[in-house]
From TrEMBL:
Subcellular location, principal: membrane
Domain (Sulfatase N-terminal): residue spans on this chain: 315-570
This protein's record includes keyword Transferase: no
PANTHER family in UniProt: LIPOTEICHOIC ACID SYNTHASE (PTHR47371), PHOSPHOGLYCEROL TRANSFERASE I (PTHR47371:SF3)
Record's GO cellular component terms: plasma membrane
InterPro entries on file: Alkaline_phosphatase_core_sf (IPR017850), OpgB/LTA_synthase_biosynth (IPR050448), Sulfatase_N (IPR000917)
Keyword DNA-binding: no
Name this protein carries in UniProt: LTA synthase family protein
Keywords tagged on the record: Cell membrane, Membrane, Transmembrane, Transmembrane helix
Superkingdom of this protein's organism: Bacteria
Membrane-traversing stretches: 60-79, 91-112, 146-169, 181-199
Membrane association type: Multi-pass membrane protein
Subcellular location: Cell membrane
Length: 659
């Protein structure tokens, strides 16, 4: 049997391939690191991050080069095919390197956009409008550069690896053919394999949680490589999609209920009885607003509302609404993606790390659903979106969540075809159409949820045709801007704000009994520079104006889960019973609660911290033990929401019958 005698050639090829692929991964990270170096990472944290990063590279390289070992193993069954198997092993190792090059080029672009390596959003095309995504990439991103980089990297890798690997095999073949040398190679490779596949010579294998080695989120994001990050994204996608597997925050659900509700949870049989609420009317004795508009604005950050950015004029209309109404200065979205946030708003079920619009539970309206509750109050419910109904199954999902009417970009008659893009019609065309519908509604009470789309790649609207001149930055603000995000991108934010402001002004003038609420679906990932604070890169606005809202009202911290009960404080009668996972921001309960969860962040009275990394925070510093307690509370609420959505209303599993 010639199996052991073939060891030097195959195992030397495997070791060489692992080393080369590991070097490729490290070089790719170095390119990302150079891009991110402007953040000024501390030297000791940089060294710690690289030490763990190389372990991830080692593990990924070993797995990618596994076909070389499989080819060696096949020589035991096919000894006469040794040469062909050796050639196949070299080709497999070559392909592993090519795959790494392609992934690194794609990951570089992904990192520029998201400040993170591949995560679950890279797989968004599975549910998203693939045509719109591809069109956006071709029009808004320098895809030619990435294609050129991929071709150049592939060529360089091929020209290096093929002759180098041939030479390595030739050197190994020149060694004396003895069983002792073969066994020495075998045991040396075995020892290396144990170390490589485990990600180091540590007591346990390397895991994803080991990537969180620093206090800076962006630095932690550089620890992984695109291979491991893509594998993690695939696993996360599997969890979020149609599997219904319990996410990490679901533990002993009755115990988690007790953590939130104390003795009330001990006697409760259902989850709904824990979250049933009696409405506290803000202005009892006054008629409710006839029209209610909830605007969920695409990628609407709160940072343009801050005083230091006021000179840009990005959101003058929203700032005016804030001045004349109510606003929460510490507010976060339900999730960090449009559909996850939107589905949480529509269903009333907080983000549970599941694609609610694709899960069986999303096919019906829960008692928490926004349209369901407003329907009980006698409002006609309307869902309006600038885009098209097939995006994320949104048209059917809105109807399933109880909306009586759905208005989409294709339903807007006054928008010329030349202005219709991949993501629908520009905001002001939809808003103008909704104004006409509001006029036609007469005295009938109507609740309308509006999802905008204009502040979204490819940022190619003819803004000057829409009356929006180019954006200029004053000399005072030039110090803040690093120029990496084109001003035209921020000009689209200003356009969306002006369209919103015009709609509110026009409708308020004709229909003074209207209530307006404005929030963002999620933060935008577009900032003046590379170093936004935790608040600037996380918070979204929540502004109320119009019927029943006193000017200058400051609301406490909150999340998307609080929108429904806050609106009901202005629209529902005193004592109206409904179910909600949030609280009204007008209530004492909102001012007394310790924390709330949204978009990977825990918000509290003194500020917020990024979920899982309390060091990434703004405002009041929270001691580690208190941060863990807050995290446990937010995990408990999400666990109850997940159980309610996936398993039903029962708080405890039914007891098994005794035989």
């Amino acid at each position: 049997m010639k199996f052991p005698q073939h060891a030097p050639r195959f195992l030397s090829l495997w070791l060489f391939s692992v080393f080369c692929v590991m070097l490729l991964l490290a070089l790719g990270r170095l390119a990302l690191w150079i891009f991110a170096a402007e953040a000024g990472f501390p030297p000791e944290e940089t060294a710690r991050a690289w030490s763990v990063a190389l372990r991830f590279d080692m593990m990924a390289a070993a797995y990618l080069c596994t076909p070389v070992l499989l080819c060696w193993g096949a020589t035991a069954a096919f000894p006469r095919r040794r040469r062909a198997l050796l050639k196949a092993a070299r080709i497999a190792a070559l392909c592993a390197g090519v795959l790494v090059v392609l992934l690194e080029v794609a990951d570089f672009g992904f990192f520029l956009e998201y400040g993170d390596q591949f995560n679950v959003w890279v797989l968004g095309m599975a549910n998203d409008d693939a045509r719109a995504v591809i069109g956006t990439i071709l029009r808004d991103y320098a895809w030619e550069r990435y294609l050129l980089a991929a071709a150049a990297g592939t060529l360089a890798w091929t020209l290096f690896f093929l002759p180098a690997s041939r030479r390595v095999v030739k050197i190994a073949a020149a060694l004396p053919r003895s069983r002792g040398i073969s066994l020495a190679f075998f045991f040396a490779a075995l020892a290396c394999a144990v170390v490589f596949y485990r990600g180091g010579a540590h007591r346990r294998p390397l895991r994803l949680r080991d990537a969180a080695v620093c206090a800076t989120e962006k630095l932690n994001n550089l620890v992984l490589n695109p291979v491991y990050a893509l594998k993690t994204a695939l696993v996360d996608r599997w969890k979020i999609s149609n599997q219904g597997a319990a996410p990490y925050f679901v533990g002993d659900v009755p115990a988690q209920a007790k953590l939130l509700f104390g003795k009330k949870a001990e006697n409760a049989q259902t989850i709904s009885e824990l979250f049933m609420t009696k409405n506290e009317r803000l202005n009892p004795g006054t008629p409710p607003p006839k029209r209610v508009f909830l605007f969920v604005m695409e990628s609407y950050d709160r940072w343009p509302m801050l005083e230091k950015y006021a000179g840009l004029g990005l959101c003058d209309a929203l700032r005016a609404l804030e001045k004349n109404g109510a606003s929460s200065p510490n507010f976060v979205s339900g999730a960090d993606g449009t559909m996850l946030s939107l589905s949480a708003i529509l269903s009333g079920i907080p983000d549970i790390e599941a694609a609610q619009n694709y899960r069986p539970g999303g096919e019906k309206a829960f008692p928490t659903a926004l349209a369901e509750i407003f329907g009980r109050l006698g409002y006609k419910t309307r869902f309006a979106y600038c885009g098209y109904g097939f995006w994320q199954h949104v048209e059917n999902y809105a109807r399933e969540q109880g909306f009586d009417e759905v208005v989409l970009g294709g339903d807007v008659p006054d928008c010329p075809k030349k202005y219709k893009g991949e993501w629908g019609v520009p905001d002001h065309f939809l808003f103008s159409h909704l104004e006409k519908l509001a006029d036609a509604d007469g005295d009938a009470p109507v609740f309308t949820l509006v999802l905008s789309a204009s502040y979204h790649p490819p940022y190619d609207l003819p803004l000057e045709e829409f009356g929006c001149p180019p954006l200029r930055v004053s000399a005072e603000l030039e110090k803040i801007f690093d120029g990496k995000t084109p001003l035209n991108t921020f000009a689209h934010f200003r356009y969306a704000d002006r369209a919103l402001g015009k709609f509110v002004a026009d409708v308020s003038r004709k229909h003074p009994d209207t209530l307006f609420a404005v929030t963002g679906d999620h933060f935008s990932r577009r900032f003046p520079n590379a170093n936004p604070t935790a608040a600037e890169r996380t918070q979204v606005p929540f502004v109320l104006a119009g019927k029943g809202v006193s000017a200058g009202t400051a609301l406490p911290f909150g999340t998307h889960a609080d929108i429904a009960p806050t609106l009901l404080s202005l629209c529902a009668p005193e004592g109206f019973e409904y179910m909600t996972f949030g609280v009204s921001l007008f209530s004492e309960k909102a001012r007394e609660r310790r924390c709330a969860y949204g978009a990977r962040a825990v918000v509290h009275e003194g500020g917020l911290f990024i979920y899982g990394t309390p060091q990434e925070s703004c405002g009041k510093k929270i001691p580690p033990e208190e941060a863990e307690a807050m995290k446990a509370e937010t995990d408990a609420l999400r666990a109850l929401a997940w159980t309610y959505f996936e398993k039903g209303d029962a708080l405890r599993p039914p007891e098994k019958e005794k035989k």
